């Protein structure tokens, strides 16, 4: 009977994520927040009913791949080009500021008599690695939140997506450099070359696929399900190649696959068919899986304080770094804040980075719990703060709206 337990796990995840999502929407919050809490409640942190398994992890990975494919499919390429420089600067500052912030926090706590982060590497490398964890950005939840609000294909949405892609590449480079100092087997030049070659491979393969697929579509005006299968297969293929052979995150490959097909007129049919699979099955499992990862052991006051301070720095540093990058390109204060908040979520990316550092001996199990708190806190806070940033109106905006209402009232009075 144990071999069929995954069926019950999936059923519980689907029901709980939907129920918590509806409650979340009632509370004027994005439904993804409810899905995250569902995983937290079902997992080891609360009820301990559902546990993370290899099968659920694999399904969750396909779920996030599909989410990022949709993000690319819905992206306006012309708008993305327009925000290209802003995305680059935003990503760079969004890495530098959290890196420095995380390093300073770690430098204060990682001392004899307070906390010991690790034994097999230098204290300086351990502190730098904590900063490296904070540079991570997971926009899958931000994407779903923006999509839910109808703001994904916007100036802010495209800037976040562009910055997230660059952030992912720079984060891989930073992680590689830090680990290389503790592991002599890692070759930095080789990793950089692989990243460069991936984008060449992606440009060629996507170009060929686009030409072949577009010609195939043009020959038949009907909508056929075979188009959806071909597109999904290409998305998975590019995701696999990017992760396995080039060391670039699979979600980057998925986003590029979606971006390639975004100019097609039939993309809405493709999205509609794939969205059913994502919404009803894969996406809930992905969002719940983040909550399932959280295991909170008994923590001392110092460790708990470290977790709280690190979480605060994780949020503030991304908002300041990314927001400053936007301000340099004449974004409004509100737009800069929205981009900064959109980059706050660390999600599974930070967990992957932390796991790499743990394997390399840069951190120990004592540090893992605070990192998990940072991940779950930023993942929950990001969509909540993002929605608040869109619904909140400044005094100037309120005065403008009031003046418009007064003018409209005057017009109506004149007409009567």
Report what the structure shows.
- By secondary structure, the protein is mainly alpha-helical.
- It has 17 helices and no strands.
- α9 packs antiparallel against α10 and α13 (301-327) crosses α14 (333-342).
- The protein is globular, with a radius of gyration of 22 Å.
What attributes characterize this protein structure?
globular, mainly alpha, 78% helix, single chain
Helical residues, percent: over 70%
Q: Could you state the oligomeric state of the chains shown? A: single chain
Based on CA atoms alone, the radius of gyration comes out at: 22 Å
Number of strands: 0
- Our estimate of the beta-strand percent is under 5%
Brief overview:
With 416 residues, the chain is mainly alpha-helical. The chain has 17 helices and no strands. Mean pLDDT is 84; it is low at 410-416.
Layout of helices and strands, plus pairs?
Blueprint: H1 5-26, H2 31-42, H3 54-73, H4 77-82, H5 84-109, H6 123-135, H7 140-149, H8 155-182, H9 188-218, H10 225-245, H11 250-261, H12 267-292, H13 301-327, H14 333-342, H15 347-359, H16 365-391, H17 395-415
């Amino acid at each position: 009977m144990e071999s069929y337990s995954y069926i019950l796990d999936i059923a519980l995840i689907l029901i709980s994520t939907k129920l918590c999502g509806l409650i979340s929407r009632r509370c004027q919050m994005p439904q993804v927040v409810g899905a995250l809490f569902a995983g937290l409640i079902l997992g080891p942190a609360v009820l301990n009913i559902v546990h993370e398994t290899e099968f659920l992890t694999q399904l969750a990975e396909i779920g996030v791949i599909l989410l990022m494919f949709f993000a690319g499919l819905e992206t306006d390429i012309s708008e993305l080009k327009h925000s290209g420089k802003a995305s680059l600067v935003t990503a760079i500052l969004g890495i530098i500021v959290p890196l420095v912030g995380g390093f300073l926090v770690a430098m204060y706590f990682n001392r004899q008599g307070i906390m010991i982060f690790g034994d097999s590497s230098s204290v300086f490398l351990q502190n730098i690695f904590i900063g490296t964890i904070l540079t991570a950005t997971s926009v899958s939840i931000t994407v779903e939140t923006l999509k839910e609000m109808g703001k994904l294909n916007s100036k802010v949405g495209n800037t976040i997506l562009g910055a997230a892609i660059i952030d992912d590449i720079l984060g891989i480079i930073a992680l590689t450099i830090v680990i290389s100092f503790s592991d002599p087997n890692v070759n930095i030049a080789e990793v950089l070359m692989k990243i460069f070659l991936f984008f060449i491979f992606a440009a060629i393969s996507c170009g060929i696929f686009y030409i072949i697929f577009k010609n195939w579509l043009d020959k038949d005006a009907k909508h056929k399900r075979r188009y959806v299968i071909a597109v999904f297969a290409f998305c998975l293929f590019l995701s696999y190649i990017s992760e396995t052979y080039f060391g670039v995150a699979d979600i980057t490959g998925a986003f590029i696959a979606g971006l390639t097909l975004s100019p097609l007129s039939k993309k809405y049919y493709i999205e509609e068919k794939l969205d059913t699979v994502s919404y009803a099955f894969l996406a809930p499992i992905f969002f719940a899986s983040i909550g399932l990862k959280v295991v909170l052991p008994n923590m001392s006051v110092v460790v708990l304080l470290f977790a709280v301070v690190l979480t605060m720095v994780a949020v503030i540093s991304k908002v300041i770094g990314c927001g400053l990058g936007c301000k340099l390109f004449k974004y409004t204060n509100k737009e800069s804040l929205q981009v900064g908040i959109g980059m706050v979520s660390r999600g599974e990316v930070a967990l992957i980075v932390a796991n790499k550092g743990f394997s390399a001996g840069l951190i120990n199990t004592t540090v893992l719990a605070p990192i998990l708190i940072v991940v779950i806190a930023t993942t929950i806070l990001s969509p909540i703060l993002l929605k608040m940033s869109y619904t909140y109106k400044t005094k100037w905006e309120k005065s403008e709206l009031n003046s418009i209402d007064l003018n409209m009232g005057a017009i109506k009075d004149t007409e009567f």
